[in-house]
Amino acid sequence: MTRTAKTLEVKRHFDAVARRYDLMNTILSFGLHHLWKRRTIRLLGLKPGERVLDLCGGTGDLARLAAAQVGPEGRVLVYDLNRAMMAVGRPKAARRGLADRIHWVEGDAECLALPDAGVDAVVVGFGVRNLAHLEAGLGEMRRVLKPGGRLAVLEFSRPTPPLFRRLYDLYSFCLMPRLGQLLAGSREAYTYLITSIREFPLPETLSRLILDAGFTSVTYHPLTYGIAVIHLARA
Predict the structure, then answer these.
(1) Total count of domains within the chain
(2) Average pLDDT, the chain
(3) What is this structure's pTM?
(4) Poorest-confidence range of 59-63, 188-192, 199-203, 214-218?
(5) What CATH number is given to the structural domain containing 49?
(6) Residues that bind S-adenosyl-L-methionine, according to the entry (predicted)?
(7) Is 80 annotated as belonging to a binding site?
């Protein structure tokens, strides 16, 4: 699939589910995604006054957590291709008194309209899997980070215990698309979710790609039997 074709496919799916996206995340993960995101931000080690890029930031879950850490002198930039997702996120930030700290930009993660070495940290939550050219996206993350800046990538993976993996596959392929149709009006979007997880590189491979993009100190941390993984690195 070409970059344009995949970009349009991903955009179409997120347009379809934007209003129900956060609710579906909570239902399908049994609320675990909140714990995973909080741990991601803790491991990122943000400090007051820092500049943070929430890439593929969608409705801004990670951005709101990051904004609380960087304080009133810090700034968080949500960068996402999908206007509908960000439209859902803006009022949530405002209700938490974070509107002044969080800024929203519609754009392509593989070609960031941002200066070199301009942010202290980059966080990506369940977004790198949707990039048409993963290496290009990782290269852009490296480019915009200051020397020594931190990267945290939270992404789905495949469970490691064999029995749990079989149960997870049954749940994923049989139940998730049906719930997507029932609750979000899109079976297709949640079929894409499962397919994209299966086709995405394993954590070891993603770690090598992050290293190849020029990062150092690359580590990864499996969550909940490997359903999700946090990758950490430094520029």
Answers:
(1) 1
(2) 95
(3) 0.93
(4) 188-192
(5) 3.40.50.150
(6) 59, 80, 108-109
(7) yes
